[in-house]
Structure to design on (501 residues):
């Protein structure tokens, strides 16, 4: 058994003058305090990576900087799925008795630490170095390809995709830490600058500075426990050229395995935290996970199904699209928000019932998937 | 990635050709060069020159590029093509290509390199 015992999250956006280690430290300190622990009680450290300050041993660089000497420490790299992959590993480490309190931490000054072009270029390298990268694709182009095919097969329109950007922005408006606080409409998304059609600027998550952390422990440290019920992964390919058919992508495989591991059904879920690097990512994942029928996710957004007071509140902090995306920390904010919702601490964003939550992360070009179920226990 | 000896030059090395590999044991075809068959693991798949014809599987028109060299070309259309030989490849193509269009390859200069470029097959 393992519990998420504490969470920490910085605002996302510009943190002028903060390094990746600064942002990691800030988030770590918040998470450890939230768990009611002292930093010397942390005996495991898992961290992501920083594209601004790459290092072959980031976990020990961080541990030294932060002033702890863990019994277990290393970095994990699965692109956007890294945050949940680290949580899954921390869960297993805690269950196996390898560590009592594992700190999962990431932070990056991706916005102010390098040019936007440098970010886009670094990320495009997930493409095949010989067969894809020479063609000048960008991450939005990889997802633009996926979007064009998905729209073709399931009759999804650009206006449908725009709904997801509008929903995430409406949620971000209620979170003081979000990068964006101006409301947008479907017309705004449609009129935004083309990036990699069918994706336009407002279909894409921003580049942000920020940090996120949590503590995964063998025993709960507070009155309300947030327990990891079960989790699973699936890895079907790396490069979009080698991706399987849309009907065979990894999200469906990961969620099936996670449901079996957790012993829960989609009908048990009360809150959803789903990776949303682009509007198409969110639309596809919601449908792959079974939170909407094929081609029907946008209609569910329009009907309020995924709103804060809807049947399945989704990314109530604003997601990557509007809270922001600082690399590995980006999707970790989804888990922080889920924890706040499950423990009744989400303030003006609080949903009625977040007793069972589904989290899903994706890395690469729908290459690596992690699905996870959390349950509140009193 | 690579590791096998490459007998046929292709666009990735500056030649006007698209090359794929065919497994001598199970017959599977693959695009990314390897010293073994990715389906059955048999060694030394044979290299063959593709016909350059296929069908558009997906498209994305890049309007925002990340380097000065690629920015000079915007907008450019990145396409995935299901080739007549049965493998999928990424390439460039005419900006108005649509999914399911039948296409034929030529070669074009892009950011200082030779890249495969698809246009609708003339009837």
């Amino acid at each position: 058994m393992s519990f998420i015992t504490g969470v920490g999250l910085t605002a996302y956006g510009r943190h002028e003058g903060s390094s990746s280690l600064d942002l990691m430290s800030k988030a770590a300190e918040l998470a450890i305090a939230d768990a009611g622990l002292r930093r010397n009680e942390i005996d495991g450290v898992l961290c992501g990576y920083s594209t601004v300050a790459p290092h072959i041993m980031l976990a020990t660089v961080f541990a030294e900087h932060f002033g702890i000497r863990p019994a277990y420490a290393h970095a994990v790299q699965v692109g956007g799925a890294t945050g949940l992959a680290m949580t899954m590993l921390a869960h297993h480490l805690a269950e196996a008795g390898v560590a009592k309190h594992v700190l999962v931490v990431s932070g990056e000054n991706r916005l102010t630490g390098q040019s936007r072009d440098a970010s886009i270029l670094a990320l495009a390298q997930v493409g095949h170095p010989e067969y894809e990268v020479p063609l000048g694709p960008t991450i939005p182009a990889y997802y633009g390809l996926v979007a064009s095919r998905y729209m073709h097969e399931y009759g999804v329109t650009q206006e449908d995709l725009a709904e997801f950007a509008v929903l995430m922005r409406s949620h971000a408006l209620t979170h003081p830490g979000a990068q964006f606080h101006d409301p947008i409409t479907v017309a705004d998304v449609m009129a935004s600058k083309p990036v990699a059609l069918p994706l336009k600027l407002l279909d894409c998550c921003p580049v942000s500075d920020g940090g996120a952390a949590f503590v995964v422990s063998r025993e709960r440290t507070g009155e309300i426990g947030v327990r990891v019920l079960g989790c699973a992964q699936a890895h079907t390919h790396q490069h979009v050229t080698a991706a399987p058919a849309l009907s065979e992508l990894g999200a469906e495989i990961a969620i099936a395995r996670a449901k079996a591991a957790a012993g829960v059904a989609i009908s048990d879920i009360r809150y959803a935290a789903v990776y949303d690097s682009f509007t198409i990512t969110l639309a596809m994942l919601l449908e792959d996970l079974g939170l909407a029928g094929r081609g029907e996710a946008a209609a569910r957004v329009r009907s309020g199904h995924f709103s804060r007071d809807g049947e399945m509140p989704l990314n109530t902090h604003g997601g990557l699209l509007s809270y922001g995306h600082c690399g590995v920390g980006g999707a970790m904010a989804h888990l922080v928000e889920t924890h706040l919702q499950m423990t009744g601490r989400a303030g003006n964003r609080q949903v009625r019932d977040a007793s069972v939550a589904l989290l899903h992360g994706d890395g690469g070009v729908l290459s690596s998937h992690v699905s996870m179920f959390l349950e509140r226990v009193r | 990635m690579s590791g096998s000896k490459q007998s046929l030059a292709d666009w990735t090395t500056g030649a006007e050709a698209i090359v794929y590999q065919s497994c001598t044991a199970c017959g599977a075809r693959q695009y990314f060069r390897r010293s073994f068959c990715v389906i059955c693991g048999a060694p030394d798949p044979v290299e063959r020159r593709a016909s350059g014809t296929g069908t558009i599987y997906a498209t994305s028109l890049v309007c925002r590029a990340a380097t000065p060299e690629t920015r000079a070309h915007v907008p450019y259309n990145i396409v995935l093509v299901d080739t007549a030989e049965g493998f999928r490849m990424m390439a460039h193509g005419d900006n108005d290509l649509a999914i399911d269009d039948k296409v034929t390859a030529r070669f074009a200069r892009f950011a200082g390199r030779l890249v495969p470029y698809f246009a609708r097959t003339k009837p």
Q: What stands out?
A: The interface with chain B takes residues 117, 120-121, 124, 128-132, 134-138, 140-149, 152, 193-199, 239-242 of chain A (CB under 8 Å). Residues 139-154 of chain A form the longest helix (16 residues). Chain A has a mean pLDDT of 96. The two ends of chain A are 15 Å apart (CA to CA).
